[in-house]
Amino acid sequence: MSKKLVIVESPNKVRSIAGYLGSDFDVEASVGHIRDLAQPSELPAAEKKGPYGKFAVDVEDGFKPYYVINPDKKKTVTQLRKALKEADELYLATDDDREGEAIAWHLLEVLKPKVPVKRMTFTEITREAVGRALENTRELDTDRVDAQETRRILDRLVGYEISPVLWRKVRAGLSAGRVQSVATRLVVERERERMAFTAAGYWGVEAELAVGGGVGQEAQSFTARLATLDGRRVATGRDFDDDGQLRPAAVKAGTVHLHEGGARAVADAVLRSTPQVAEVEEKPYKRRPAAPFTTSTLQQEASRKLRMNPRETMRVAQGLYENGFITYMRTDSTVLSGQAVSAARAQVAELYGPEYVPAKPRLYATRTKGAQEAHEAIRPAGDHFRTPAQVAGELSGSQFRLYELIWKRTVASQMADAVGSTATVRVQVPLMSADGGARDAGLTFRMAGLTASGTVITFRGFLAAYEEGRDADRYDSGSDKDVRLPAMRVGDSLRALGSEAAGHETTPPPRYTEASLVKALEEREIGRPSTYAATMSVIADRGYVDHRGQALVPTWLAFAVTRLLEENFAELVDYDFTASMERDLDRIAAGEEDRVAWLDRFYNGARVQEGADGEAETGARSLSQMLASLGEIDARAVNSIDIGEGLTLRVGRYGPYLEDAEGKRANVPAGIAPDELTVAKARELFERAADDGRELGTDPVTGHTIIAKDGRYGPYVTEVLPEETEAEAGAPAEDGGPRKRTAKKAAKPRTASLFKSMSLATVTLEQALDLLSLPRVVGQDAEGVDITAQNGRYGPYLKKGTDSRSLETEEQLFTVTLEQANELFAQPKRRRGQAAARGPLRELGTDPATGRPVVIKDGRFGPYFTDGETNVTLRRGDDPATVTPERAYELLADKRAKGPAKKRTTTRKTTAKKKTTSARSTRSSRA
Fold first, then answer.
1. Which residues contact 893 (CB under 8 A, 6 or more apart)?
2. What is the per-residue pLDDT across 312-359, written as a single tens digit (0 to 9) for each?
3. CA distance 791 to 775
4. What does the H/E/C string look like for 56-116?
5. CA 852 → CA 837, 869, 892, distances in Å?
6. Of 352, 363, 431, which Cα lies nearest the Cα of 387?
7. Has this prediction a pTM greater than 0.85?
8. Active-site choice (328, 716, 864, 889)
9. 897 close to 850: Cβ distance less than 8 angstroms
10. Is 657 a catalytic residue?
């Protein structure tokens, strides 16, 4: 009986695809790449001295790579070879992108099949999609393979040439990469902008105005903001540059920089005056839905809405794709297939009503250059979408949240516009003796102009399903959506109910988050969206960025690395140059560029040609030219950042430290961001360093000296252990022979961080001994288990076995009693930062079926009934204030009758392990 072998990338796909194809097909997995460029240390001895010795790439002969089978894939290759012997046809069903194409080519090179070979691709794992792929096979796309191989060789050349420079001049173990170095530079440049930023102060006025309120009328109020004085615009944050000065355009336009005195005078004058409506403008409001997800936009939105980092997003998406829930998750395209558009429109009509379905299907054009248009956008799999409720029982928590996000975005993309109206009213207020401040001192303004606006959504359209998130806006003043202004006409007199002057300060540019950094890379066309998750992980793992909440804070190490690259390898961190390399890779993938010629230009440089004027034409330097002109790099200068007033931050082997002109040093705590290290803060750290190593006294129990020190992670106290004397080290053993040296570890001194309420200069011996006594045994519970009070990374807490409870203050470590500790452990455990448990919204009485009291509580997803064991959410239309106890008893009885929800279980397919021998392989020529 004939057998067809299908090779996919992931073992998680095997069972589903095998079920769709039937018994005539044997489905096996390559488990990703089976071979890669060799590490130079892995090369045979004869090759180490040859052209492959430095990079495992022969840069003198067409950039030929030296491939080896990955050690952990040798058994996989043996299994695939065995399966191929029993097949009369081979289908390569790796992913439909450059990486998948390259995996398929490597499989051909290693397996060397003698049976017909077909390339089979699909972007979703459903019966219909797999069936269509089987009927529409194609040949291997060698241009795509060339592009992937070029990228791999390019990264090897850059990494192996530049990283050793970083090891010598900054720190061992660092790495440079084509995309990661540019991403790091973006984060560092943003921090430099924050460090150079000077805040500007300005004042504004807000007034609460009322219309109506006459006989038989109800007064309606609204808030208006001061916009002009005598027709001249009042400055807001956007009018100032990062030096704290009004922008030239604002100065030219005569913008008023209002200060406290003038603002208070205007506020007072508005309150004493009679405002009058000068203009009322109403415009229609329309908002269109966002396009379906690409890889980049999925990573951005998952970061904003689900707090998932790009690596986790791609991991969860990979699982959803492999199990047939979504389409392929590495795509630049926003295009939906005809079946997907029909499915989305049908679901909109079913779930939201026909009025939410636009007259024509929405078509989205992909804006990314070089986008892989053969792919669809990321969407729910199948010709008919399953709702989140239908798949909830089959998915884990993170899988469900991501699927729901993808489903909502896809469905919303085929929904009608949100429409409404935006009203803007301009109010004039005559002023009496309102003086300007600063630049306008001495001027008197006669008329204030106030504005108010509001948008009212009359038809929610796609907003009923989904609204796209936004990154933090530097000048975001809040949304006026759904703010309804009262009806007014030009000439109406208003009443000023209140008027308030308020001071403001401009803010520095916001730090990048992973979402906004991904967006910035994509906008600059740097790298591929499919690689952004790995890039975010690398810059964090290498110590180039720290996370402060969602913000990315560059480390001082990143400053040193970026400076070295900017000063010596400028092209490699140039945004346009890096983007042009990506476009060149796209040209290679399209068959419009020869990979060998391109690599030769990048590494060795273009051949010098004469231009029209007879002059030699020169472009960007090649990698070899950059290295040849490197010269001597001053490592001390590269690792130094000027703070001001003769103070310098230096990036040392064990972390950053400050140094003044006299050579005095001070540690820089890890929690201080670069933009927070001002001259004043640096002086404070030097003052603290003066107390570093201060002796507090002697521990009466051990006799050890106790000292207070300032470390990288803050001030702490520790004990000085006596050193072993030569006499003790050389003392004879008990049998009279020489003492044998042992591998016994040296004793570690006790250490403890200072409480936040303590300082290095004032901490006493008594306080230090208390700190060093931690953890403190509070007592034992009823079962005899010790309860201890400890200070941890996230603050003070109590511990009992594997259970723990947070304490509110560090001082409680010494004061909490056993009774108080038992009370804390009797309460449900709360997430960090979670508020204490709130009481019930309403008590309903005793359930006659169970005898347990039933109450209504407010939960994460809304109010719910509970009897302490069974919970059930209130149904739509049930008001917590008026719902009857009988209704609660009924819903709880229904929930108990259904029993607990079944958990999804999975089984993992295992394969027998077989021995294999390693194989050496180099890239063969392709026609």
1. 849
2. 999 999 999 999 999 999 888 899 988 899 999 999 999 999 999 999
3. 7
4. CEECCCCCEEEEEECHHHHHHHHHHHHHHHCCCEEEECCCCCHHHHHHHHHHHHHHCCCCC
5. 20, 9, 11
6. 352
7. no
8. 328
9. no
10. no
